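Private note to self, pasted from the team thread so I don't lose it. Backbone tokens:
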């Protein structure tokens, strides 16, 4: 299980993540394909925020999902 402290999730450039991340970027950070992240959203395992026409993933949702061990659910943990 990956443990990440709140506010400490770095992005690939070494900077902290923004408070809201678009779905493709969130999928990349989680190591998932966009369709896998879409399934997690549909199942309610990750809750996006809807702004205008965009689905944005809060940094807190990414941290919560990683801290819950959720990365195994989409990568073969469920059948």
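Design output:
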């Amino acid at each position: 299980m990956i443990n990440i402290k709140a506010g400490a999730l770095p992005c690939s450039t070494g900077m902290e993540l923004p408070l809201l991340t678009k779905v493709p970027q969130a999928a990349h950070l989680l190591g998932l394909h966009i369709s896998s992240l879409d399934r997690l959203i549909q199942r309610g395992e990750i809750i996006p925020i809807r702004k205008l026409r965009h689905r944005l993933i809060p940094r807190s949702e990414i941290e919560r999902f990683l801290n819950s061990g959720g990365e195994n659910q989409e990568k073969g943990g469920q059948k």
